[in-house]
Amino acid sequence: MLSSEEFLLLEAIRDTGSLSRAAAQLGKAPSTVSHAARQLEARFDALLFDRRRYRLQLTPAGQLLAQEAARLMHDVASLSERIRHVASGWEERLWIVTDEIIEFESLATVIQDFDALGSAVSLRITHEVLGGTWEALRDGRADLVVGATNEPPALSSLRWAPLGEIQWVFALSPRHPLARENEPLTRDAIAKHRGVVVADTARNHSRAYGLVGGQPALAVPSMRAKILAQRQGLGVGWLPLHRIKTLLERGELVERQTVSPREPNQLYLGWRSEHEGRALAWWIEKLKTPRLARRLVQGLDKPD
């Protein structure tokens, strides 16, 4: 590793092409700079300066040393800054896991507000489905979960806060046979047709939600895929009202009443109390703001 003075010497010689001009730039005597250059070559046992031409230049070895020294010094400066931030209570990284039902667009402005703090905290945002959100928190794959749809589990040090309720409608393509059945639809009538579900990402004890007993299923990776599948008549099922309002208005999906309506789901924030740093505390406080919580639950006014 070069000292800052040695790095500045390399830079000055590369920039000026002369020991005397490099000395003037550094505010040192030419003999001092010449001695330092030779000491540097002796230290690395390599020719670093090409003295054969009118203009002094770095050899390929010297160029490599200058480039790597610049990179290392940048890394050290970056590490020093990160250490200062962590010492002041900021985490090095915050891992946020959202339930797939939360639209990323709803978080974009929150990320911008967080960036404005200049915390230097790296953000990682991924998503899980249903039981996978709480499981990620339990297994250390999340510092904060957003939009978990299941009840908070019995977990040591778990902290949670409600975000709001999500409303569901039983929806299907107007071309689907169930669109012509009398309402309310019975469980037996629904069971004859394929249900579309978003696959639970829980590694252990995953479940299929929204199906009736014996109903064939099509499991898809996201709510967006589920909405698309039901628009295409590939199956039926419960969809979040806020995501399909426009599709219902346009007649691309139709709502059908059922004998057993689905109750609204409460969405939750969740975190572990032993991991509360400044970044986590900021995100929790921000996401609990009523206006933002409502936007997360209701989503953005756009068709899928």
Write the topology of this structure.
Blueprint: H1 4-16, H2 19-26, H3 30-44, E1 49-50, E2 57-58, H4 60-87, E3 93-99, H5 105-115, E4 122-128, H6 131-138, E5 144-148, E6 158-166, E7 168-172, H7 187-191, E8 195-198, E9 217-220, H8 223-231, E10 237-240, H9 241-250, E11 254-255, E12 265-272, H10 278-287, H11 290-298
Parallel strand pairs: 3-4, 3-5, 8-9
Antiparallel strand pairs: 1-2, 5-12, 6-12, 7-10, 7-11
Helix pairs in contact: 1-2, 1-4, 2-3
Tell me the total number of β-strands: 12
Instruction: Give the spatial strand order of the biggest sheet.
Output: 4-3-5-12-6
Nearest-angstrom radius of gyration? 31 Å
| Helix content percent band | 40-55%
Largest sheet: 5 strands, mixed
Number of helices: 11
Distance between the termini: 54 Å
Shape: elongated
Report the structural category: alpha/beta
- Report the β-strand fraction as a percent range: 15-25%
Uncertain residue segments: none
The run of helices and strands is: HHHEEHEHEHEEEHEEHEHEEHH
Mean pLDDT: 86
Description:
This protein is α/β, with parallel strands linked by helices and 304 residues long. Helices cover 41% and strands 19% of the residues. The chain is built from 11 helices and 12 strands. It has a 5-stranded mixed β-sheet with strand order 4-3-5-12-6. It has a 3-stranded antiparallel β-sheet with strand order 10-7-11. Strands 1-2 form a two-stranded antiparallel sheet. Helix 1 crosses helix 2 and helix 1 crosses helix 4. The protein is elongated. The chain starts with a helix and ends in a 6-residue tail after the last helix. The model has no long low-confidence stretch (mean pLDDT 86).
